[in-house]
Structure formats: structure tokens, C-alpha cells
């Protein structure tokens, strides 16, 4: 009998469609007017706008299923590139919880950029949370994280199962977890999360499905065939790597 490693087994099952009919679905979405308007926000800084060509934020918003009036939680928002866009996209009847880690909050000035956004956009609330024991003020429609999923595997207290389960419990029934990350080569395994700061997509799917999610759609919008997926994402250029997009449903 042939023995498969965890990563190889996951890849085989995914290719066979063993995770449900929607797993193999590829989806691209044209940007609706509200998403385009959010990206066109005149208050966005020039440094953010310079990243738009590579990050394709309006199309990503559309793919994830963000809509006006939604309550969205953003895991690991950094300095708020997407936080600002999400706030404009959900509009005044929606909410955005910017979920900063305790490590970010502990750095001098670590929350300054996010707090400035919350002061400028009344529908943004900045929360400091433990990603492995996630508790939100309310269940949300969508949890969003970009280029962070691999990092949730790193560090002495990493517990990806707890992160994924916390996200699952934080979502309303039918809610969406949007995960976008730098792709590692197929079969690279978990070593890639710290060595290259990339994520083996097959392993990510296996972990998320184990938490209870169903893969609703996959996006090719941010693929880059010229990226060998076997070097540090910073060496390639942080937002020109090959990136996978997953829309997962509770």
C-alpha cells in the first residue's frame, strides 16, 4: 500500500474533488460600483494607491462577497491598507472590526495607524485580541485576512486549529472567511510558513475544512506564473508573488 504525506494526501484529495463540489470552482468577480468607489476614496494615501495594481482590491472585495451593510472582521490588518477600503465598502450601515494582535499593540506606536483610521471612519473599531482565543463583540458576516495565514503558523504559541475554529465560531451561519496568501510550491509543507513566509495551499484547505469550513470558491486573480514559489516573498516583491484566494463558508 502506498503511503502519502499529509500534504500529498491533501493535494490528491483536492484534485479528486473529495472536499465537495465547490472546491474545484474557480471564480473571478467584476468589481461592483461600491467596491470601485471604496478604492477611489480620495482620502487613501499615495502609498496605498501605489499597491493597487498588484493587489487588485476592488476585485478582491467583489470575490470575497463584501457588500454594503455587512459586519466584517479583519484579522491582522497591519497599517490598514484594506481596513480603510472595507470601511468604505460596507458603508455607514456596516461595521469593520480591525483585529490587531497583542504583539502589534505592544509595539510603540503599533496601533497608531489603525487608531487614526478609526478616528476618521466611525464604522471602524480597533480591537486587540488573541488570535488563538478569538472573542468578538458579535458574530460577523465575514472575516478577512490577506497575506497573513502563513504567519498564524509561526511562533512558539502558534495554534492554527484554534485560530481557524475561533474564526468559524465568530461567523454567522453562512458567513464567509476570506483567505489570501503567498503561495508555496505544492508539497512544500509547513516549513514554508517560516522559511519563505508562504503557505502551502493544499495544507491551508485541509486545515480550514477540518475547522468546519467548506471551500466555496477559489480565485486566480492574483496568480503569477513567473513566481517559482520557492523563495522569500520579500525577495520576489511582496505583492508580486503568486497568491491564492479562498472564499470559505461556514
Q: How would you explain this protein's 3D organization?
A:
The chain is α/β, with parallel strands linked by helices and 250 residues long. The chain has one domain: Rossmann fold. The protein is built from 12 helices and 7 strands. The protein has helices at 6-16, 33-39, 46-49, 52-55, 57-64, 81-90, 102-106, 112-120, 160-170, 191-195, 201-210, 233-236; strands at residues 71-75, 95-101, 124-129, 140-146, 171-182, 214-219, 243-249. It has a 7-stranded mixed β-sheet, with helices on both faces. Strand 1, helix 6 and strand 2 (95-101) form a beta-alpha-beta unit. Helix 1 (6-16) crosses helix 11, helix 2 crosses helix 5 (57-64) and helix 2 runs antiparallel to helix 6 (81-90).
Brief overview, please?
This protein has about 250 residues and is an alpha/beta fold.
What portion of the residues fall into strands of 2 or more residues?
A: 15-25%
The CATH architecture comes to 3-Layer(aba) Sandwich
The first-level CATH class is given as Alpha Beta
CATH names the topology as: Rossmann fold
Please tag this protein with its features:
Rossmann fold; disordered N terminus; alpha/beta; about 250 residues; 7-stranded mixed beta sheet
Tell me the layout of helices and strands.
Layout lengths: L5 H11 L16 H7 L6 H4 L2 H4 L1 H8 L6 E5 L5 H10 L4 E7 H5 L5 H9 L3 E6 L10 E7 L13 H11 E12 L8 H5 L5 H10 L3 E6 L13 H4 L6 E7 L1
Parallel strand pairs: 1-2, 1-4, 2-3, 4-5
Antiparallel strand pairs: 5-7, 6-7
Helix pairs in contact: 1-11, 2-5, 2-6
Amino acid at each position: 500500500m502506498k503511503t502519502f504525506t499529509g500534504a500529498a494526501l491533501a493535494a490528491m484529495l483536492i484534485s479528486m474533488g473529495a472536499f465537495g463540489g465547490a472546491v474545484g470552482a474557480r471564480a473571478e468577480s467584476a468589481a461592483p460600483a461600491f467596491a470601485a468607489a471604496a478604492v477611489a476614496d480620495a482620502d487613501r494615501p499615495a502609498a496605498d494607491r501605489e499597491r493597487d495594481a498588484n493587489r487588485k482590491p476592488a476585485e478582491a472585495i467583489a470575490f470575497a462577497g463584501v457588500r454594503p451593510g455587512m459586519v466584517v472582521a479583519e484579522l491582522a490588518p497591519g497599517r490598514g491598507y484594506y481596513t480603510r477600503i472595507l470601511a468604505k465598502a460596507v458603508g455607514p450601515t456596516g461595521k469593520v472590526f480591525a483585529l490587531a494582535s497583542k504583539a502589534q499593540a505592544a509595539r510603540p506606536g503599533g496601533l497608531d495607524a489603525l487608531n487614526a483610521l478609526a478616528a476618521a471612519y466611525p464604522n471602524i473599531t480597533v480591537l486587540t485580541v488573541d488570535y488563538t482565543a478569538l472573542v468578538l463583540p458579535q458574530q460577523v458576516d465575514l472575516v478577512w485576512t490577506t497575506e497573513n495565514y502563513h504567519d498564524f503558523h509561526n511562533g512558539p504559541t502558534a495554534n492554527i486549529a484554534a485560530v481557524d475554529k475561533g474564526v468559524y465560531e465568530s461567523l454567522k451561519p453562512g458567513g464567509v472567511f476570506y483567505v489570501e496568501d503567498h503561495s508555496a510550491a505544492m508539497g512544500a509543507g509547513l516549513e514554508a510558513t517560516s522559511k519563505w513566509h508562504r503557505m502551502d495551499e493544499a495544507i491551508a484547505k485541509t486545515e480550514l475544512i477540518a475547522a468546519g469550513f467548506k471551500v466555496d470558491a477559489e480565485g486566480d486573480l492574483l496568480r503569477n506564473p513567473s513566481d517559482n514559489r520557492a523563495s522569500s516573498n520579500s525577495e520576489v516583491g511582496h505583492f508580486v508573488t503568486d497568491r491564492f484566494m479562498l472564499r470559505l463558508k461556514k
